[in-house]
Amino acid sequence: MENLDRYRGGAPCLRVAHQPNFLPSVNVVAQATLTNVLNRLLGGAYAETFFVVDYDVNDDRRYRQAMLPSLPSRDGVWRLPAPPRHGAPAWMTNEEAPTPDFVGLLGSSLRVWARQQAASLPRGASRARQRARADNRLDVLVGVFEKAAADAASLADFNTLVLSWIVNQALALPTLFIPGSAALPLIAGHLAALWHSRAALTRACGAGPLWKRCVCGTRLELTEYPGSSPRFGCARCGRTGYVTDADVPELAANGEIVPRIIADDLLDAVAWGNIAGCDYRGGVSHYARSALAARDLNLASLPVFLSSRTPDARIDHLSGQDYAAALDRSPALIAAGRTSMIMPLLWADELIAARLADDMRGT
């Protein structure tokens, strides 16, 4: 509640920003732990937030698939997909939430995976104990999945609710989750300002600042030609049109235009009340481009700690000692932080948020 009180009181925010991936990876969750560590180092006066980037299309592989280490698998990886997408890629918030049947299948698949891993461990009391512990923890997780599916309006909501449970309940962090799709209409004025700076942004980044959201559920490039307003055309449904300066405030307030990634980075510093951020290191090129764009526009650039899991960090606190010792074909998946948090939730002897942060190395 203290974190919520700080946020309501207007405290500057330390934020994570990421799309709501299905059964998220260790690297994504670790960003929230780093934010908490940073806040404590700075005296604990800031609000900790996780800005959920759920205003995009639903075709990213990392959004739709989790990966787990697998002792019996040939390549050492068990791939666990989200519910199959029906039709062409669509807006994240337009895709329906997982059904009860899917949640049941997800629980069954995870139980098969967990028992296969236990069966690959050396025989003995330790193997039986670990299998029983994983079964008990999985019962809890299935309950989390069932509640998330019942409460969610979309797959993005489901993924966010599961992520929130991992961060807020399993790791006991105070992080506030902010769905970007719901928050963007509140900063329509800032989106309009970026729109009016689109020429400078295009020069700096090679693309305009905003996407147009089509009614058919995809995102559209806004292409500007000399002497005319930016136009869009949808290859899927055939809709075409123009966006004028006068249209932008209303389109932004209705969620019909959304920021591209460079514009997102600029909004971090000027619109959301953030003082610093923690992000996965994979975003370093986008961050560098947005910093150059901010300089050209005389805007502030948000300080961001970009990190990834240290490759030589120990894995036994994520997997338990016996399981770590048995891994011979997929340790890199864990060492790189790309394994789903489901693995440590089921196998770790004790899950400590600060240990996740300690494993990260950044710039």
Give a verbal description of the structure.
- This protein is of the alpha/beta class and 363 residues long.
- It has a domain of 237 residues.
- Helices cover 46% and strands 16% of the residues.
- It has 17 helices and 13 strands.
- The strands form four sheets. It has a six-stranded mixed sheet with strand order 5-2-1-11-12-13, sandwiched between helices.
- The two termini are 31 Å apart.
- 44% of the residues are buried.
Summarize the structure.
The protein has 363 residues and is an alpha/beta fold. It is built from 17 helices and 13 strands.
Which key features would you list for this structure?
363 residues, alpha/beta, 6-stranded mixed β-sheet, 3-stranded antiparallel β-sheet, 17 helices, 13 strands, 46% helix, 16% strand
User: Measured on Cα atoms, how large is the radius of gyration?
Assistant: 22 Å
Tell me the distance between the termini. 31 Å
How many helical stretches? 17
| Structural class category | alpha/beta
Low-confidence stretches: none
Topology as H/E string?
HEHEHEEHHHEHHHEEEEHEHEHEHHHHHE
